[in-house]
């Protein structure tokens, strides 16, 4: 399921996401891009689990951080870029499901620093189950070699 609202940021986020080898390796896909909100979905894969067969915390953190950073991209100038400078993840429940959803939302936009919140969900036959939350901070990068929007 995809839900994309068009905007100046849409193509830029799609192109940037497509260039991320990590997202490709994980099998992740963008499923929503709108002003201040991005969602990424990921199918279950045994290669992404830890020793107990649940989704690895590093994979959860990666999905949340990526969704939150792209949510921030919806608010910045096209000539700017972003770097995550801090995040904290709370793992709330084991990642057991056929599919996972990572939603990033901008909490506090700013011209230099953007604060985000993320939520990770396990999606199965019943209602989605909250498995993780994240708060992150991105720094807006301008005029720095190697960091294009």
UniProtKB/TrEMBL annotation:
- Enzyme class, top EC level, equals hydrolase
Kindly indicate where the leader peptide sits in this chain. Answer: none
What's the superkingdom here?
Answer: Bacteria
- List the InterPro entries hit by this protein, alphabetically: HotDog_dom_sf (IPR029069), PAAI_dom (IPR003736), Thioestr_dom (IPR006683)
Catalytic activities: a medium-chain fatty acyl-CoA + H2O = a medium-chain fatty acid + CoA + H(+); a fatty acyl-CoA + H2O = a fatty acid + CoA + H(+); a long-chain fatty acyl-CoA + H2O = a long-chain fatty acid + CoA + H(+)
Q: Which residues form the Thioesterase domain?
A: 52-122
What UniProt keywords are attached to this protein's entry?
Hydrolase
EC code(s) of this entry = 3.1.2.20
- Which PANTHER family does the entry mention? 1,4-DIHYDROXY-2-NAPHTHOYL-COA THIOESTERASE 1, MEDIUM_LONG-CHAIN ACYL-COA THIOESTERASE YIGI
Family, per the entry?
Belongs to the YigI thioesterase family.
The protein depicted here goes by the name Medium/long-chain acyl-CoA thioesterase YigI
